[in-house]
Amino acid sequence: xxxxxxxxxxxxxxxxxxxxxxxxxxxxxxxxxxxxxxxxxxxxxxxxxxxxxxxxxxxxxxxxxxxxxxxxxxxxxxxxxxxxxxxxxxxxxxxxxxxxxxxxxxxxxxxxxxxxxxxxxxxxxxxxx
Length: 129
Known about the structure:
Blueprint lengths: L6 E3 L4 E4 L4 E3 L3 H36 L12 H4 L2 H14 L24 H9 L1
Antiparallel strand pairs: 1-2, 2-3
């Protein structure tokens, strides 16, 4: 391979090596432009990936079947197929029931219970009288 010392640059942006081969060389500004453009595309792609994961977890949370929607690993294939996403959540809950959302039902000892018929003013009058 030729080293920079073995080559000579001509005015037409090509390099002539001592062996007589010519190699095309792009101006530094053009190469920098291409690198900057590529960096912007990488940033856009990363942002799109981040948004896809967020949409995935929001759709998983909207199903209301998992206590923590991040328990289902991200899968780009499930992003556009809602029945498959629901099936994946159901399969996960079937194999790991402790990940399912827990909703209390019945009398859990909170809230109003039988206090609707009590008249506090009547109790005070009765005790004073």
